[in-house]
Request: fold
Amino acid sequence: MQRFTVTLVWVCFTLATFPAQAEELALTSTRTLAASCAACHGPNGNSLGSTPTLAALNQQYFIQRMQGFKDGSVSSTVMHHHAKGLTTEEVTAMAAYFAQQPRQTPQPLPHQSFLGAQ
Amino acid sequence: MAMEKITRLPVPTRRQFVRSVIYGGLAFYGLPAFARAGKPPLGHVVVVGAGFAGLTAAKYLREWSMGNLKVTLIEPNPQFISCPQSNLVLGGSRTLDQLSFSYDIARKQHDLHWIRDSVMSVDMANKQVKLTRGSLSYDRLVLAPGVDFNYSKIPGMPSPVENIPHAWKAGKQTLQLRQQLESMPDGGVFVMTIPSGAYRCPPGPYERACQVAHYFKQHKPRSKVIILDANADIVSKKGLFLQSFNGAYQGMIEYHNNSEILQLDTGSKTIKTDFETVKADVLNVIPPQLAGKVAQVAGLNNVDQRWCEVDFVSYASTLQSDVHIIGDSISAGLPKSAHMATSHAKVCAAAIIELQSGHAPNPLPVFANTCYSFVDDQQAMHVANVYRYDPAKKSMVSAEGGGVSAKASLQEGEYAQAWAHNIWADTLT
Reply:
C-alpha cells in the first residue's frame, strides 16, 4: 500500500511537472534561436549599427514584417533569406521573445591597441 | 592554480566594518546557493579558447545558468583580434587596432575565471586538463581551438617560412602581408594559393583577392593578383565574386581553378601546378587546415584525422560525451564562419545547462548564419541561411529560402559594418 502511494505521488508529480518542463524547453529553445539574430541585431536585439533594434519591438509589427519578407510583399536585401527558412510558430515565438527584451543603450566596444603578441 | 593576484586590502574603520557585516549578510542570502555552499550547483565547465566560439559559450553558460555554473576560460593570447574584416587591413580601409579588443569586459561582466595559459593534454578518464602550469578539473569540457595549419601537405614548404605569411589568423601576419604589398613595386605579382577541402571562412580568399586588387588599383595599377585555387571552382558566392573579378578588377585578377601546388620553391617564390609555373613578388600561401591543436591532442579529430565529429544537439564529441567541440574545429557541411561559431556556442551552452540540470536538451536546434564579404572599401555582399537539425541525417541542414545578394552594394557595406559591431558586442560584452 505504501509502495502504491509512493508510486501514485510520483506519477502525479511527473504529470504535473512534465508540461512545465516542456514549456520551459520551448522557451529556452526560442531564446537560443533568438540569440542567433545577435550577429546582425546586437545582444538581446539591441543593435549597435544601422540594422534595426529588435528589443521591445511591437509583437504584431515583428510578425507582419517577417511575413512580408517571407511572401515578398516587403522588399529586403537580406531578411527574406532568413524569414523563408523559419516556421510561422518560430516567428510568433520570437516576436513574443523580442517584445519582452528591454531596450538598452549598447555598451561601447572594448577597443584596445594591437599588442603585437599574436 | 596560483593564478589570482594577491592584493592587500585596506584596514576598514569600525563603522565601515559594521556596515560591511550588515551588507555582507544581506548579500550572502541574495547570492546563488553555491556561493554560500562553495560548490556551483550545476558544476564546473572549462572552456578552451577565447575566440568567437569559446568566449560566446562562456558568456551564455554563465548568463543562461543564472550564475549556477562555474566557467573557467583558458586562452594563451592577451587580447581578441577579429578575423572578420582583417582582409580590409590588406585593402587599406581598416587598421589592425580597429579589430583588436580587450577581454576585460567579458571577463568581469560574466564573472569568468580566466587563465592565460595553453592546454598541453586532456585526461578524459579523470576529467582534467593539464596546462603548462598546473592542471584543472572539469565536469564538462568545451573545446574551441579554431584551426591549425598542415604544412606537411605543401610540397616544398613542409613548415612555415618567415617571409611567406598565411595571414589566415588575424594578427602579426596580417600586418606583415600588408607591408609586403606596400613595398612591392608597381607591376609586381601577388599570388595567393587556396587549399582544397574545408578551411576557415570559405569566401575569405576571394574577398582577399578583391581587397588586394582594390589597393593595387589605387596605388599600383600595373600589378596583378593571381589566385591558384586547388578547388575545381570558386567555393563561395561564385557569381558575385565573378562580377568583381570581371568588372571592377578586370585585367587585374586572374583566377586559376584546379591549381593544386605540385612544387613550391620558397627561395624564388615560384609555384608549379599542373598547368603552369607562376613566380610571385608577394606570396600568400593559405595552408590546408585541420581542427585546432587541443582537439588533436585529445584525439577527437576523428573525421579524416582533420575535423571533429559532434552531435549537433549538444556539440558533444561522438567519441567523448562530456567533451563538447564548437567553432571551426568541427566536421559539418556548414561554412566555418564567425556567426556559425557563435551559433554552435549558444546551442552548446543551452544544451550543457539542460544536461547539467538532468534534462534532455532541445532535440531540434535551429540557427541562422549571415556572412558578408567586402569587394572594396565600402561595398559588400552576403550569403544567408537558416539551418535546422535533421535527426534522420544527424546533421544541420540548410532550410529553404537561403541565398546570396543580387550584387554587392553600399547598403550591404553598411549592414556588414553593423554585423561586425554587433557580433563583437555579442561576444565581447
Observations:
- The two ends of chain B are 26 Å apart (CA to CA).
- Residues 14-149+290-364 of chain B form a domain with the FAD/NAD(P)-binding domain fold (CATH 3.50.50.60).
- Chain B touches chain A through 66 residues (CB under 8 Å).
